[in-house]
Design goal:
- The complex is a heterodimer of chains A (387) and B (296).
- Helix content of chain A is 51%, strand content 17%.
- Chain A has 387 residues and is of the alpha+beta class.
- Chain A has 2 domains: 138 residues, no CATH class; 229 residues, no CATH class.
- In chain A, strands 3-4-9-6-8-7 form a 6-stranded mixed β-barrel, surrounded by 4 helices. In chain A, strands 2-12 form a two-stranded antiparallel ribbon. Chain A has a two-stranded antiparallel ribbon with strand order 10-11.
- In chain A, a hairpin with a 2-residue loop joins strand 3 and strand 4.
- Chain A starts with a helix and ends with a helix.
- In chain B, the strands form 3 sheets. Chain B has a 4-stranded parallel β-sheet, with helices on both faces. Chain B has a 4-stranded parallel β-sheet with strand order 8-7-9-10, sandwiched between helices. Chain B has a two-stranded antiparallel sheet with strand order 5-6.
- In chain B, strand 7, helix 7 and strand 8 form a beta-alpha-beta unit.
- In chain B, helix 2 crosses helix 6.
- The longest helix of chain B has 30 residues.
- Chain B is globular, with a radius of gyration of 22 Å.
- The relative contact order of chain B is 0.11.
- Classes of the chains: A alpha+beta (387), B alpha/beta (296).
- At the A-B interface, strand 3, helix 5 and strand 11 of A face helix 3, strand 5, strand 6 and helix 8 of B.
Chain lengths: 387, 296
């Protein structure tokens, strides 16, 4: 007990030097464990969403871009395909087809244009308000609502897809009608609108002043003039004037989430997209993400070796610091010996000090790992979103 | 005995909510589809057609609360061909929405278009299709079949009942089709100009080989001089003129028509609920139409 007391008294006397030593050892222990935890959380999060998505149909091109965009709302932009493809899947009876339009952002959150079937498929429920019912209404993911402090009755404005798209896309002011319950997925950080609202943002659906007959006579053929004023907000007063031109089947979607009823239907549906001449492809997200994770973990193995070497070097550094510290304390130890303290007692004092320092570093490292663990999901989401 | 009765009442009390909960909730955008759903679904379906009586469901705009009720339905029946413009702007779950005219989309009749130009110089057309498809009774039978298919998909265990009720309904529609064909056959052989107060009879005209020109008159209004000039232009010297009104015309309109030697008949498209069911109203339409096109 007296040994521990004396060791503790020495640590307290040299409190700053001891604190630096404890922090250094704690970081050496915590950093590899934290990285491991973060990577595991990212892997689980990536894999869980991919496993929950049976099939994705998109334009032929990078499969990874398609999956990252459609599942994790990344900023990859696969070529669009037409709404006719959605109808073709429905008509085939092989799967439910859920369109996704992912091109715009609102307050730095992706705007996901889709149908109500998406919310049902992902099991997303409104915590506040209701789901979107008409053009111009938006439902926020829990994370977006919290970050922006928005709720039902508030509004948010879409942004152009990029700074150079100044001529193409007008911002649309959308009314928030609901906030989803937290799901712990990318859906928490997205803004959901009907796909037709996404087309309005894209400018291919619009509302404007009335087109009136020139002579005002009932039944006379209306002749519209140029420079009709277009609306930038959809309100109950002007929603009736919003309309879409041409065949909706030709309208763009970024990807189609296909939900077949069984494995056989999934197989047949995939078979329909094997022809390389087709401009479309069907991918199994789980396989694409497994390939991605395989590559990431090859890199991780190299990273582990590097981290191990760095940790070893750091531990050697700490050992050197302890050794030098003992060298500096030679006079102190000689004095203790002359006062009648046995060599074994001196050794016990040194060992007790090292044990106390290591214990404190261990506790601090555990604290860092635990704190990082509680933020791991959030950090994993950020990592995936930034990928 | 009393104990057994109590037990039965208790058992009924337990089973009733379950049976009610098991009912298919079907929302429709017009009365003909509601009628088809009621006939095919029978007691197994709770059919809701929420448009208020007296309003044209094609132009009615439901509130967000009504749209939310549509979103909760087991089956949402749309007419298609652009009928009920609100559908274009509403968010409905595709998995539970049935466009009943999809099978004959290639037979839609294009409607007149309006072209306008935007500030950026881009030009667009507001076109679309004539939407009162059910006045061609063979197309109505196909829409009824789409309703039955959706119900069978939702409740496969009741497929036989749905199918047998569909057959009965299609027989009734075939009878209407036959009757309309006979009336039209006798009408086309006479020098009659058929003029409609609104462009709603395109499918009826095409199905039964009639030529019906359309004005855009409100039956309750008094037509202006210019409107009568349009009427005379459509008549174009025909020996007789028959005017098809969607609803009972105003006294002034009826008198104006009589002054020109025209005959008016109300042909109710039955888009909304009214007096009598769909079949009764269509039979009455055809009887009145036959009377209006038969001359001594």
């Amino acid at each position: 007990m007296s040994t521990l007391y004396l060791a503790w008294a020495h640590i307290v006397w040299h409190r700053w030097r001891s604190a630096v030593l404890v922090a250094a050892i704690a970081l050496v222990l915590a950093v590899p464990a934290t990285i491991e935890r973060l990577l595991t959380a990212s892997e689980e999060r990536l894999a869980a969403r991919a496993e929950a998505t049976p099939l994705l149909v998109g334009a032929r091109g990078s499969r990874l871009d398609l999956v990252m965009n459609a599942l994790y709302f990344s900023e990859d932009r696969p070529d669009p395909l037409s709404m006719a493809e959605v109808e073709a899947i429905w008509d085939s009876g092989l799967a439910e087809a859920i369109p996704l339009h992912l091109r715009f952002q609102a307050e730095a959150a992706p705007v996901v244009g889709t149908t109500l079937d998406y919310l049902s498929f992902r099991g997303l429920k409104t915590g506040e308000g209701r789901v979107f019912a008409t053009l111009g209404e938006a439902v926020l993911g829990a994370g977006v609502a919290r970050r922006l402090g928005l709720g039902p009755g508030d509004s948010l404005t879409s942004a152009p897809s990029n700074l150079f798209d100044l001529a193409g896309v007008y911002p649309l002011k959308m009314t928030v009608v609901g906030v989803l319950e937290p799901s712990g997925t990318q859906d928490d950080d997205a803004v959901f609108v009907d796909i037709k609202t996404a087309w309005v943002i894209a400018g291919i659906g619009h509302g404007h002043d009335d087109v009136v007959a020139e002579d005002g006579e009932p039944g006379a053929a209306p002749r519209a003039s140029a420079a009709i004023r277009q609306y930038q907000e959809i309100t109950p007063e002007n929603v009736e004037s919003f309309h879409f031109h041409g065949d909706l089947a030709a309208y763009p979607v970024s990807a189609i989430l296909a939900v077949p009823p069984d494995a056989r239907a999934a197989m047949i549906l995939r078979g329909r997209y094997l022809d390389a001449e087709l401009g479309t492809q069907a991918v199994v997200p789980d396989r694409v993400i497994s390939e991605l994770l395989g590559r990431i973990f090859q890199i991780k193995r190299s990273l582990d070796a590097a981290v191990g070497l760095v940790a070893l070097a750091a531990l050697v550094g700490v050992g050197l610091a302890v050794f030098l510290s003992l060298q500096l304390r030679q006079r102190e130890m000689r004095t203790a010996f002359r006062l009648g303290c046995r060599r074994s007692m001196i050794a016990r004092l040194v060992l007790a000090e090292i044990a106390l320092l290591l214990s404190m570093a261990g506790v601090l490292a555990a604290g860092i790992v635990l704190a990082a663990g509680s933020l791991a999901d959030q950090a994993a989401g950020w990592l995936i979103g930034a990928a | 005995m009393i104990g057994r009765l109590c037990l039965m009442i208790f058992a009924l009390g337990l089973s009733w909510p379950a049976a009610a909960a098991d009912k298919l909730t079907v929302y429709t955008v017009n009365y003909p589809l509601a009628y088809f759903a009621e006939r095919i679904g029978g007691d197994a379906a709770e059919v809701v057609f929420p448009a208020p009586q007296g309003q044209d469901p094609a132009f009615w705009e439901p509130s967000p609360e009504v749209i939310a009720a549509f979103q909760q339905a087991d089956i949402i029946l749309l007419n298609g061909a652009g009928y009920a413009r609100w559908v274009e702007k509403a968010s409905l779950p595709r998995s539970r929405t049935v466009e009943t005219s999809k099978l004959f989309a290639d037979r839609f009749i294009p409607a007149d278009t309006v072209v306008h130009t935007h500030a950026d110089g881009s030009e667009h057309s507001h076109g679309g299709f004539a939407a009162i498809t059910w006045l061609d009774f063979s197309l109505a039978a196909m829409q009824a079949e789409a309703v039955a298919t959706a119900m069978i998909k939702a409740r496969p265990d009741q497929a036989d009942a749905f199918s047998s009720r569909l057959t009965e309904l299609q027989d009734d529609l075939a009878e209407l089709d036959n009757q309309a064909s006979k009336i039209a056959y006798s009408a086309v052989n006479q020098d009659i100009a058929m003029i409609a107060s609104h462009p709603v009879y395109q499918y009826f005209a095409r199905a039964y080989g009639l030529t019906i020109d359309s004005l855009v008159w409100e039956p309750e209004d008094t037509p202006s001089e210019k409107q009568w000039i349009d009427f005379d232009a459509f008549r174009a010297g025909a020996e007789r003129a028959v005017m098809l009104w969607e609803a009972t015309p105003s006294q002034a309109a009826a008198q104006g028509l009589a002054d020109r030697g025209g005959v008016g008949t109300v042909f109710d498209p039955a888009g909304n609920r009214g007096e009598g069911d769909f079949l009764e109203r269509m039979r009455a339409n055809l009887d009145d139409f036959a009377a209006a096109t038969t001359f001594e």
